[in-house]
Fold each of these.
Amino acid sequence: MANSSTPAVQIEGLTKVFRLPFKKEQVVAVDNLSLKVGAGEVYGLIGPNGSGKSTTMKVLLGLISPSAGKASIFGLDSGDTASRGSVGFLPENPYFYKYLTGSETLAFYGKLCGLSRRKIRVRSEELLEMVDLTGARDRRLGGYSKGMLQRIGLAQALVGDPRLVVLDEPTAGVDPAGSRKIRDLVLELKHRGISVILSSHLLEQVQEVCDEVGIIFRGKLVREGKLDELIAIEDQSEIVLQNATPQLLERIAALVGEEEGAQLLRCGNPRTTLERLFLQEINKGSRQGGEDA
Amino acid sequence: MNFPLKNTSLFSGRWLLVCLILIVAGSLRIPVERDMELEFKEQGFRDWSPGLSSRDQLTQAAFVGALGGFRSLVASVYHLKAHNSFVKKNWGEVERYRTVTASLQPKFWSYWDLAVWDMAWNAFGYYRGEAEDYGDDFKGWQIENIVMPTYLQKGIAFAKRGLEWLPDDYRLLKVIADIYDQKMGNAGKAAEWYLKASRIPDAPSHVYRAYAHQLTLCEGREEEAYRVNEDLYRNSGDITLTLLRDLERLEDGIARRAASDMPFDRLMSAAQAESAGYLEMASLAMHLLEVKKDLPAATDVYEKVTGHPRAPSFYRRKLAFLMVEDPKKAVRGYQMLKELALSDPATLRREDITRIGQLESRLGIPEAKRIKP
Amino acid sequence: MFSPLRIWAIARNTFTQLVRMKVFYFMLIFSALIIGANLLFLSFTFEQELKILKDVSFGAMSLFSSIFAIVGTALLIPKDIEDRTLYTILTKPVPRIEYLLGKLLGILLLIAVSILLMSLLFFTVLYIRQHGILAERIASFPRQVSEAQIESFREDIFSRGLQPELLLGIVAVFLKAAVAAAVALFVSTFASSTLFTIIVSLVVYFIGHAQSLALDYYFSMGEMHSAAQRFFAGLIGVVFPNFQLFNVTDGLTSGEVISTSLMARLLGLTAFYLTIYSMVSWLVFAKKEL
């Protein structure tokens, strides 16, 4: 994991006020928000709809200018076009140009990043492979499913070999299988040392990938910290056993009872998640001759 | 690239800068554009300006179109509309549409020409037919005396307007003369306009001839007419039938007036003078023929006339017919006619041919040997 | 940092995007129909027929290229915003000016290509008609026609038909559409919807035709005009582009000739307009909240 001293994202005191035209009202979308994403980290920005997640990302990406405060990417101010040389962005529910094929789309964005034709070809192959769309590279985007669009979107974000990837609701509207693929991709990115900042209101999914999490509500960052620290229920421990006999369980319960202050809260079959069950069934089904999701 | 101005509200510095740039850029280009406009005008690219009158004539869409640079397109559309109205015989519409077409494309001769033609020929002819249908009815009188002349005037008006744009187009001048001649029988005006037309450098020669011809039809301008026609006869190199006939008529007129106005001895001395032209002799001959009724003397004088190098050929015909009146000279006279028929058939008018036929019957000339004109 | 390649990538993409739009094909087919319909028009003399053919064709080309320039440009930025593709582009290291220039270049290319296609059709029809007229003339001649006479007919007829000067008219049609597109681009940077852009651009287009009248008013020495009226007229003259200058086809089809210097100035003026409107478009767009 890369560990340079410059943080991937540094937002300090960001405030964004929208003034409605021809009216006196103001909307404070982001209120004195500060956050930092270290190099190689995955940061999740979570909050309900309208809490300012998208606005924050847009400021970071130079699409909107802040009313106050600063945002920078690897030390370069967000207002600077140069800052975007190291960023890839996947917006929420994007439509790309429907008449372009997968590889043409990547070629287009590659040119925008200033890549040479040869480099584009190499990179496209790589990325299409990575997002598992090699089979659909010559199909027009108009024929892609939602999950496929998200994946090509991710590929497009990566075409410039960015060190930071910004994802706005990357799994919104995607089915669980596709969602899983995307989550795997994010983890892959993390393995490669690419910093990620993503926003989502699907909390379960954030939990699986993020190192650090910020909760944003009504424009303010109300809680922030490492994930493990945040959600660990500190005074509880978990032990998961396999093939334990009832006698063993009794012995353990007895041990707990002997300890001062400790309490056995729960004993029974841990629940799998509905998601895992769902995926199991699908995988079974696709092994019996299914199609690519 | 960081801009110091962060606000984007309507009255912010950014917008002021935008307005400033537009105004400054505008001011810079104005002089260049004005110069170009002037040059375009000089080159004839701005023949139409949206004055109030044009707004009346055009529909809203057409006006906008004309302003929007589709002047020619609009003109073409109105040209087609005019044609449709022509087919429907709606002359009011024809006039309106032709006006629009011509005013939108004033440098295009054809549109003016069509307008004149539709008014002075088509509409005029249509109403003449109407007048005939009405006969002696008051309506008939009205059409003949008010409507028809109005359309002739409209035709002339179009041509004159066209001349404001195309002052050097002989065709517009000529068509006015044609109207005066063919439709109104006004030889004086016709002559005036034919003359104007003939003065344009690229006017063909027949325009000047038309002028010459019209002069002969004018009362009281015989001298001018003779001068012009004689000059044509001598110098133009191409003697048309009309010219020949006109010249003969004019010379006959001159000779006849001299023969009746001047006393005999003055005629004699004039004819016998050193510098006597053939006209003086012809006058004398005319006098001898018509006043003194002295056929042989007249014949002799005509013989001298035909001997004059500048005497036109019809004098030989005159001589020939006089000779056939005299039984002694009849055969020679007939021979002369025969020669003329072969060498110069233009001198024989229709009435002459009839007379020859009668003569041949009288003389008993067999069919095979008769003159075949 | 300035990259013509990036601009070209955006331009090509814009071109492809617009070419697929049905509105483009409708306009092209419609104008083709109009030009082709010239073959049916009745006229009395060949001068009229050829002139009307040229007038109608130029009119159709000018109308459609100007309208398409405005409508096509008006939807470029709003569509990218609506589809959110704008975000994917501007979050790459693409300066906003390059984006604008790329869009403008794309639509100018498309306009050029469509004008080219329409001109080809126009020239073909003109060629067919002028040869047809020549044949008719020869056939209807009462006597046997000599070589010299054929030559004189040909010169007479062809001089009113397909002539190189027509190319200048076509260039002028393109230049006018180019300026209209630049205006529409500027309006679209601050407009709230495509429709708004189209309406405003059309209004500017029409006022631009009467702009020179406003200036005449301003410069005239008449005592009747108040200072306020003159100021207003002057303002109109300065702010609105002079579209009337590009209307050379009327004169061309009447046989007038455009001097090289005028044409050169027209080209320079177009470049000036494009530059200024790109500049102000950038000023507005650079800090537009997206």
Amino acid sequence: MLPDDDRRDAAEQVLSRLGTFDMDLAQVERVRARCHRALDRRGRWQRLAVLAETPLYRGVLEPTLLAAVSGVYLFEVVSRALGLLGL
Amino acid sequence: MSREAGPRVDPGVERATDVLLVERLRRGDPGAFDEVYEVYRARLFSFLARLGCRRDLAEDLSEEVWVRLVTHARRLAPDTHLLAWLFTVARNLYWSHCRSRRVEEAHSAELASLWTVAVRHPSPFEDAVATEFERQVERALASLPPPSREVLLLTAEEGLTPSEAATVCGVTPEALRQRLSRARALLAGVLREDTRGPHA
């Protein structure tokens, strides 16, 4: 019978060269597809974020949008105030 | 199930490759994901299969690890050691699962089913000379408490250094060395009992 130390060393040698298991092929491809979809979704958001950093958006579109939203809000506030005053 | 260990990459080369892969992953490159998936998929799955002794659980947890990799890819540190990162997430998911389901007991009987899906089928000769002790070690490993199994898998099977394994397990290197020493003693004890057999 092997002494404990030898048995332990032999076991660790076996452990270091144990073979690998793998998922079945269908599962492998399903997970790959799911991860690619997640990366793709993330990529789309990243592209939008990049677009938001362009000079055209920063210099023209963003101020125009802000002015339009502010204008609509201001118009609504003034209209309601005039309505309450009966004018 | 392969009888030989898969090709282990030199740690230095692995690190250098990791830096490039992490950089590409951070940019959301699907090709980088495919490379990481091919290199580490079987190792990660084997780790989870042996840790939990259940194929279905290993499949679920592996999938979750890969999804987490792509959802966290942008936040990966440039010097991330991918294998350690993947194993850290995997073992955290496994222990969360154990806490929520209280399924820490060994399912060694189910380990046999793992042998049905093989990376490479061994020859009859390889089977004859290598199987018995290997199976004995697999059985002994499956019968150990999960914390001991985990530390043996990370160090002896995956070849992580004690400090890398300590990072994965979230303990100090000293605590890991103690845990590893206990795990080795337990494994030797189980193998000794197994060798004696029920009639010894």
